[in-house]
C-alpha cells in the first residue's frame, strides 16, 4: 500500500478550507487503496478521530525525516502558506518524491488583497519569489478557480495551462443524518434563543474584516423584519480574535445585540445543523478577490439556502452565481440591502429555486467527485513513474 503524504497548515479538529479539502482527498485516496497520512503543525490540540493518520510536526525541517519514516511515495502540499509548501517541496525533491501543489488561494497576492503585506517591498518580493518557485518546481499544480490560474499567469508568469482545475465543493456525507432537518433546526434555534418563525441570515466561515461593515449595513433589515444574524466563525488566530473585538463593538447596543448570535469554532460535522437553522446564506468578499469562490458558497447552495453575496463586479464568485437560480450577487451595499429585502419578501419562492441549486451543486461540486479526479492524477503519475524506472 503506497503512502501519500498531505501537507496542510492545520488539521482536524480545526475546521477550515484546508482541513476539509485534505479530509476529502484522504478519504478518496483511502477508498482507492492508498495509505493517506496528513502532516500538520503541532498546535497542542486533542487528537481527532479520523480513518487515516494525522501526524504533527513542531518544525518544518522535520518533514524530510517524516517522509522517510513513513515511506511517502507522493506528497500533496496544500497552500497557502507557500513557505510550508516550499519546505515540503525541498525535502520531496531531495528524496525524489513527486509533489503536487494544491493551491486553495494565492499566497502573496491574497495577503496583499486583504492588506497584510504591501507591494514593492522586500518582504513582498521574497514571498512572491518563494511562491513562484514552489509552483514552478511542483510536479502538478491544482487551483480551485480558473481565475486563480489567470492571476498566476499575469502575476507570476506561469502559463495558466500548467494548472489543473480542482474546485472546492461540499462534503455531502456531513449532511447525511437520520434526524430530520426540521428537528435539527428547532434544536439549534432553541439553543440560540431564536424564535422558530424568525428569518435568519447566516455568515459561515472565517471572521473577515468586512463583517463589521456588513453588520452596520444589515442592521435596519434585522430590526425592521424581526430577523436575526447568525455568525458561525473561527477565532483560531490573533487577527480573527482582533476582528471579533471589532464585531462586539458594533453590536454593543442592546437593540442590535439581541439580533446577532455568535457560534464560534464549530466542528465540521456540526456545520450542516447551522445551515439547516438558517434561511439566507451571506457571502462577503473584497473587491480585489476576483479569484475567490468561498467554500461556504457550495455549502449554502447544497443546504438549499438562497445566497446573498457582495463582491467585485466580475470574478469567480459572480460567475458562479450566474449558474444559480436563487439568491443575488451584488456589487454595492445599496444593492445588497435591496436584494436582502427582496429575498425576505419572496422567501418561499426563493427556497423552491434553492432546492434546484442544491441538486446542481450536489451533482457538479461534491468534494468526493473532485477528490476522485485528484486520485486519478495520482494513479497516473505513480504508474508513469514506475514505467520510467523500469
From TrEMBL:
Residues 21-173 form the Glycosyltransferase subfamily 4-like N-terminal domain. SUPFAM superfamilies: UDP-Glycosyltransferase/glycogen phosphorylase. This is Glycosyltransferase. It holds the Pfam family Glyco_transf_4. GO terms for molecular function: glycosyltransferase activity. The lineage of its organism: Archaea, Candidatus Iainarchaeota, Candidatus Iainarchaeia, Candidatus Iainarchaeales, Candidatus Iainarchaeaceae. The keyword Transcription regulation does not apply. Keywords: Transferase. InterPro entries: Glyco_trans_4-like_N.
Amino acid at each position: 500500500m503506497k503512502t501519500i503524504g498531505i501537507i496542510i497548515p492545520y488539521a482536524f479538529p480545526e475546521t477550515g478550507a484546508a482541513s476539509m479539502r485534505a479530509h476529502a482527498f484522504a478519504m478518496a485516496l483511502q477508498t482507492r487503496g492508498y495509505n493517506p497520512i496528513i502532516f500538520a503543525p503541532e498546535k497542542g490540540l486533542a487528537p481527532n478521530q479520523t480513518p487515516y493518520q494525522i501526524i504533527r510536526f513542531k518544525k518544518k525541517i522535520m518533514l524530510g525525516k517524516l517522509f522517510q519514516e513513513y515511506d511517502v511515495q507522493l506528497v500533496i502540499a496544500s497552500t497557502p502558506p507557500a513557505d510550508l509548501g516550499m519546505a515540503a517541496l525541498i525535502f520531496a525533491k531531495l528524496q525524489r518524491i513527486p509533489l503536487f501543489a494544491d493551491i486553495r488561494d494565492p499566497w502573496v497576492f491574497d495577503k496583499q488583497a486583504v492588506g497584510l503585506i504591501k507591494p514593492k517591498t522586500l518582504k513582498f518580493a521574497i514571498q512572491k519569489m518563494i511562491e513562484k518557485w514552489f509552483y514552478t518546481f511542483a510536479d502538478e499544480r491544482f487551483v480551485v478557480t480558473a481565475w486563480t490560474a489567470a492571476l498566476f499567469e499575469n502575476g507570476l508568469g506561469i502559463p495558466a495551462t500548467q494548472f489543473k482545475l480542482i474546485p472546492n465543493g461540499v462534503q455531502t456525507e456531513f449532511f447525511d443524518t437520520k434526524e430530520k432537518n426540521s428537528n435539527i433546526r428547532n434544536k439549534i434555534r432553541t439553543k440560540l434563543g431564536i424564535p422558530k418563525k424568525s428569518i435568519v441570515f447566516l455568515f459561515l466561515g472565517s471572521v473577515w474584516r468586512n463583517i463589521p461593515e456588513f453588520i452596520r449595513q444589515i442592521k435596519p433589515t434585522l430590526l425592521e423584519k424581526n430577523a436575526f444574524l447568525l455568525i458561525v466563525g473561527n477565532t483560531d488566530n490573533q487577527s480573527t480574535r482582533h476582528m471579533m473585538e471589532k464585531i462586539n463593538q458594533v453590536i454593543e447596543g442592546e437593540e442590535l445585540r439581541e439580533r446577532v448570535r455568535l457560534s464560534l469554532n464549530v466542528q465540521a460535522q456540526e456545520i450542516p445543523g447551522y445551515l439547516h437553522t438558517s434561511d439566507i446564506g451571506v457571502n462577503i468578499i473584497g473587491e480585489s478577490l476576483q479569484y475567490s469562490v468561498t467554500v461556504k458558497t457550495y455549502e449554502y447552495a447544497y443546504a438549499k439556502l438562497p445566497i446573498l453575496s457582495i463582491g467585485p463586479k466580475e470574478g469567480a464568485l459572480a460567475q458562479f452565481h450566474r449558474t444559480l437560480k436563487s439568491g443575488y450577487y451584488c456589487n454595492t451595499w445599496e444593492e445588497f440591502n435591496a436584494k436582502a429585502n427582496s429575498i425576505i419578501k419572496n422567501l418561499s419562492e426563493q427556497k423552491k429555486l434553492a432546492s434546484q441549486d442544491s441538486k446542481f451543486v450536489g451533482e457538479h461540486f461534491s468534494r468526493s467527485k473532485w477528490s476522485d479526479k485528484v486520485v486519478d492524477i495520482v494513479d497516473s503519475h505513480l504508474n508513469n513513474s514506475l514505467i520510467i524506472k523500469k
